[in-house]
Amino acid sequence: MTHDPGYNFAYLDESTKRMIRRAILKAVAIPGHQVPFGSREMPLPYGWGTGGIQVTASVLGPRDVLKVIDQGSDDTTNAVSIRAFFRRTAGVATTERTAEATIIQTRHRIPERRLTEGQILVYQVPIPEPLARLEPRIAETRRLHAMADYGLMHVKLYEDIAKHGHIATSYSYPVMVNERYLMSPSPIPAFDNPKMHMMPALQLFGAGREKRIYAVPPYTAVRSLDFEDHPFRPIRAPHRCELCGSGDTYLDEVLVDDKGGRIFVCSDTDHCQERQAMREAAE
Amino acid sequence: MSAGTALAGFADPVLDSQAAFRAVLEAMSRPGRIQRLPVPPELPPGIGPAAAAVLLALADADTPIRLAAGAEAQAWIRFHTGARAAPAAEAAFVLDSDAGLLDLDPGTEEEPERGATLILEVESLSEGSGWRLSGPGIQATHRLAVAGVRDGFLADWAASRARFPRGVDVILCAGDRIAALPRGIAIEEG
Ligand SMILES: [Zn+2]
């Protein structure tokens, strides 16, 4: 496949890609630290993950195989549009199979299948600053990161425990990267947090509106914040997937009729289909 | 036109830049693992293929460079990247074997990403023996043998690393191959 000659390769101009590439390299060298970059206007609205798209566009080469997921699914409008965008502007092959992808752009999930050294996971990030809701002044959050002063976040989680008896955060659950930087994992379910720890794949995070890039290199310690008497617990709905029978994947609740009937199915559609195929083969 | 600017840069500036960047990204993500870069077809004297490829891929008018590679190489890099010359202490990219790690810009506590990238040309790189590297990007330890770094490099490295998150990231170059040392990596002598 070749890319549409009416576009620059992967849409962005060379000087923008170079600037983003330099930001990515510094982000990798300082795991968990948010590096500012000069975000460009993209032909998609902000909510569609322009930060992730700019990171993908800067990393992508003609031999890559791209997978795009939105909430675990390959076939939402958002995921389909982003795949089509890169097929057209970069001529890359795309896939829905996690195992075949070299770059996976994601919104709100980490695939269930363990990622490998040959893969890069690119997260779309709406709010990169983990302290944003606790400290609105950007200059102040920057100072807190410089001093690794994360008392505010500990107080917030402890108030959760006092109020609810447990930590009530189930998405964007804050993590410490290499025991130095507090980082937002983007709005993935807390269930996915443990997958970030010592992942063989490189993890890159792009926030378009807030103009920040950050990274977790492969094999890097990622610890969900918790307390000795209230350890972190990755939560999932206590059900089995209706389609593949899985009891250890993250499930979405789906309404099946207008009488309130509901079932639980895997949010990771590729993984679920793979399991269904394995099940059929075994029967 | 000087001899330096008569030579082309990358054969395919867009795709070679992408491939060179990916090799540097892979190197920076997996410290001590050796990567091969696409290199320019012709080079001026004074600069090796990998060092040239790194600069062609990443430098531009926004990145002041300190280059101690001779007038021709300097003219060639400036022509193809638009990067202006700067003293070592103010440069984003430094290719100067006399520059000490501690003499370069380490960034600030709030903006550690401003820390310089030092491109060091060495005699040879090989994996499996030599230094023991550990830290982010490395599962347990990784061995990297480097011939041709100056005396005192490891002592400087330890002092530089102690400033984390401030610091300097190093790209070691030999022929068309590189290995990277991001600023936070621990290095023990082999
Ligand atoms: Zn399932």
Topology:
The complex is a heterodimer of chains A (283) and B (190).
Chain A: H1 14-29, E1 35-36, H2 50-59, E2 65-70, H3 77-90, E3 93-94, E4 103-107, E5 120-124, H4 138-146, H5 151-164, E6 175-177, E7 181-183, H6 193-196, E8 202-207, E9 212-216, E10 222-224, E11 251-255, E12 262-266, H7 269-282
Parallel strand pairs in A: 2-3, 2-4, 4-5, 5-8
Antiparallel strand pairs in A: 1-9, 6-7, 6-10, 8-9, 11-12
Helix pairs in contact in A: 1-2
Chain B: H1 3-6, H2 13-29, E1 35-36, H3 49-58, E2 65-67, H4 71-81, E3 93-95, E4 117-121, E5 124-134, E6 142-147, H5 153-161, E7 169-174, E8 177-181, E9 186-188
Parallel strand pairs in B: 2-3, 3-4, 4-7
Antiparallel strand pairs in B: 1-8, 5-6, 5-9, 7-8
The structure holds zinc ion.
3D architecture notes:
- The complex is a heterodimer of chains A (283) and B (190).
- With 283 residues, chain A is an alpha/beta fold.
- Chain A folds into 2 domains: 14-224, 3-Layer(aba) Sandwich (Rossmann fold); 236-283.
- In chain A, 29% of the residues lie in helices and 18% in strands.
- Chain A contains 7 helices and 12 strands.
- In chain A, the strands form 3 sheets. Chain A has a 7-stranded mixed sheet with strand order 1-9-8-5-4-2-3. Chain A has a 3-stranded antiparallel sheet with strand order 7-6-10.
- In chain A, α1 crosses α2 (50-59).
- The radius of gyration of chain A is 19 Å and the shape is globular.
- In chain A, 47% of the residues are buried.
- Chain B is of the alpha/beta class and 190 residues long.
- Chain B has one domain: Rossmann fold (3-Layer(aba) Sandwich).
- Chain B has 5 helices and 9 strands.
- Chain B has helices at 3-6, 13-29, 49-58, 71-81, 153-161; strands at 35-36, 65-67, 93-95, 117-121, 124-134, 142-147, 169-174, 177-181, 186-188.
- In chain B, the strands form 2 sheets. In chain B, strands 1-8-7-4-3-2 form a 6-stranded mixed sheet, with helices on one face.
- Classes of the chains: A alpha/beta (283), B alpha/beta (190).
- Chains A and B meet through α1, β1 and α4 of A and α2 of B.
- The complex binds zinc ion.
- Zinc ion binds at residues 241, 243-244, 246, 265-266, 272, 275 of chain A.
